[in-house]
UniProtKB/TrEMBL annotation:
Cofactor notes: Binds 1 zinc ion per subunit.
An MF annotation (GO) of this entry: metalloendopeptidase activity
Protein name: Extracellular metalloproteinase
Residues that bind Zn(2+): 405, 409, 434
Species classification: Eukaryota, Fungi, Dikarya, Basidiomycota, Agaricomycotina
UniProt key word rRNA-binding: no
Class of this enzyme: hydrolase
Length: 598
């Protein structure tokens, strides 16, 4: 072990670093922000405690920070600016920083960086910096650490041996995606050297990035690309929910999908396969049922979901919803350059060849659904299962809020941290991932008057849905607060707290600014539901890798400063504070304070 403390201690400013080595012992839920216990392998029998150093977030309000090193005469160079800003802010040398990528969004440009040790990147010590068009720093976040020691940087375990170890430990196969060599910060503050290898098992539905110690040949950590739905089950009653089918003509948004939904720039299809989505049961996409692009299949609820016409109806619905999520999130900032899912990126930045693949009536499970988000450039994969609460059973692909929930995992996992799929891995960040997914489904279903929102009624045939409470502004209907996290450990339960806070933010914004019926295609409007969705997506790019409720809230406040000059600052603070996430909230203790003047 070579110690880095001598080398770096004179130039490090401890304040801005998470001091990993001093953070033990952890009270139970204080680990939410930094840890997550993963049960991996095909049967979940291998337990790993995954660690991410604490991340910080600092926003510089409407003014931004006029940092002397960020300005370059004439041409703004985001790489030079972000590296010099970070080096001076953290008091480290530029050689300790690796500029990974950048993304130009509508109201800010974003740099994504990693710590490096002697030129070897550190997987879980990352940073991002947002700049205005005139080169001011709008915000930055970091989980850089001062390692207490570091392994030799030349591996003594070969990649092939590491692959064999990972395949055996994780019950899967290396999928051929190029492996990397990266340091990984451990909870004691030391840096281990790891081979990073993607392992997949199609039948078990697992897809992880394994970190294998390149000296001891042990699996020391994983990134789990799969967001699993583990739905809470409520007793079901006899009420039957029916939401009417409609035939929509040309629902595609050409501003988001310039060649429509059945053309990737080189190939035109007449199936449920296009530039954004490939949807099928098995490997064959559903073909049109008439000579033109008419995907008309009338679902027969009295028959099993597996009869041909019901399969086709489900595939077409999933294709329609996932394309619609592509188009609406595209309008609000999830584009090629911010790491979205498309086969052809039309030269607009980011990596292509990663449209969402949707497996409808996937045979691997029941009563569930999941979504895997590998890094930009590899397809997101959605699996929809059948539900057996009723007879005949029901198809999750026909419940739009389930499809939107799963699809949103792809949006949040790609936009947070710059397209790596590594940045919603802690318990708290994973919980918020579930929350955002419920929230986009909530947003999609709201009308002129904000209503309580319930997720998953159709699949289990119960108006109470699959969460513990409806999302509501009423503290009687939904009592969840920031302090509820003290007793919650499961990501969907934590997600309910976050989704309910965002429901309250949404209701407040609509209360102030009204509601637009054309929000999906008109992001330029001033209404509250439009303002909300802008802040939702803008904040994802600003927030740290593995955010907490506190840093995610701060990113919303900064997003409002960036786009609306802080016009909604007090509305946002009041809504967050109403559920305990006020100015002085910390360590899962509520606070209802709002800033002076609010
Ligand atoms: C994949 O998982 C299944 C269990 O679902 C297991 O039987 C199989 O051996 C695994 N495949 C590999 C390559 O480990
Ligand atoms: Ca992409
Ligand atoms: Zn989920």
């Amino acid at each position: 072990m070579a110690s880095f403390s001598k080398l770096l201690s004179s130039v490090l400013i401890a304040l801005l670093y998470s001091s990993a080595a001093n953070a033990n012992p952890w009270p139970l839920t204080s680990k939410h922000a930094t840890h997550r216990t993963r049960a991996v392998g095909a049967d979940g029998s291998l337990k790993l405690e995954v660690f991410h150093p604490e991340s910080t977030f600092e926003g510089f309000g409407v003014e931004g920070l006029d940092h002397p090193l960020t300005r370059r005469a004439g041409n703004f160079d985001i790489e030079a600016a972000s590296v010099s800003f970070l080096a001076s802010k953290l008091g480290i040398q530029q050689k300790d920083i690796h500029f990974r990528t950048s993304a130009k969004a509508e109201v800010a440009q974003h740099a994504f960086l990693k710590q490096q040790i002697n030129g070897v990147p550190v997987a879980n010590a990352v940073a991002n910096v947002a700049f205005s068009d005139d080169g001011k720093v709008l915000s930055f976040s970091s989980s850089f650490v001062k390692p207490s020691g570091s392994a030799e940087q030349t591996p003594t375990v070969s990649l092939n041996d590491a692959i064999a170890t990972a395949e055996k430990a994780l019950d899967g196969t290396h999928n051929g995606h190029p492996a990397t060599l990266e340091f990984l910060i451990q909870p004691d503050g030391s840096a281990v050297l790891t081979h990073v290898i993607q392992i997949q098992n199609e039948s078990a539905g697992t897809w992880v990035e394994a970190f294998v110690d390149a000296h001891s040949n042990k699996v020391v950590s994983v990134t789990d690309f799969v967001a699993k739905a583990s739905y809470r089950v409520l007793p079901f009653n006899e009420e039957i929910l029916t939401e009417g089918f409609q035939t929509l003509t040309d629902p595609q948004d050409l501003a988001a999908s310039s060649l429509g939904w059945h053309n990737d720039g080189t190939t035109s299809t007449t199936t449920t396969a296009g530039n954004n989505v490939f949807a099928a049961k098995g490997s064959t996409a559903t073909s049109q049922s008439s000579a033109t692009l008419n995907f008309i299949y009338t679902q027969n609820a009295a028959q099993a979901p597996t009869v041909a016409v019901n399969v086709a109806a489900a595939v077409v619905n999933a294709f329609y919803i996932v394309n619609s999520v592509h188009d609406v999130t595209y309008r609000y900032g999830f584009t090629e350059s911010t790491f979205n899912f498309q086969t052809n990126n039309f030269g607009k930045g980011g990596l292509g060849n990663d449209r969402v693949t949707v497996s409808v009536q996937d045979p691997a499970g029941t009563d569930n659904a999941d979504f895997s988000t590998p890094p930009d450039g590899q397809s997101g994969h959605m699996r929809m299962f059948l539900w057996d609460f009723t007879s005949p059973g029901r198809d999750g692909a026909l419940e739009n809020d389930i499809v939107i929930h799963e699809n949103t995992h792809g949006v949040t996992n790609r936009m947070t941290g710059g397209g790596t799929g590594r940045c919603l891995q802690t318990t708290e960040a994973g919980g918020m991932g579930e929350g955002w997914s419920d929230t986009l489904a909530d947003w999609a279903h709201q009308g002129a008057t904000t209503q309580n929102f319930v997720l998953g009624q159709y699949v289990i045939n119960n108006p109470a849905g699959i969460r513990s409470h409806p999302y509501s502004t009423s503290a009687t209907t939904n009592p969840l607060r920031y302090s509820s996290l003290k007793t919650l450990n499961e990501v969907h339960a934590i997600g309910e707290v976050w989704a309910n806070m965002l429901h309250n933010v949404y209701a407040s914004l609509v209360n102030v600014h009204g509601w637009s019926a054309t929000a999906r295609t008109n992001p330029g409007g001033t209404e509250g539901n439009i303002v909300f969705l802008h802040l939702f997506l803008d904040a994802l790019l600003l927030q740290p890798c593995n955010p907490t409720f506190l840093t995610a809230r701060d990113a919303w406040i900064q997003a409002d400063a960036n786009r609306f000059a802080g016009a909604n600052k007090c509305v946002l603070w009041n809504a967050f504070a109403s559920r305990g996430l006020g100015v002085n909230a910390a360590n899962h203790n509520d606070d209802s304070t709002v800033p002076a003047g609010c």
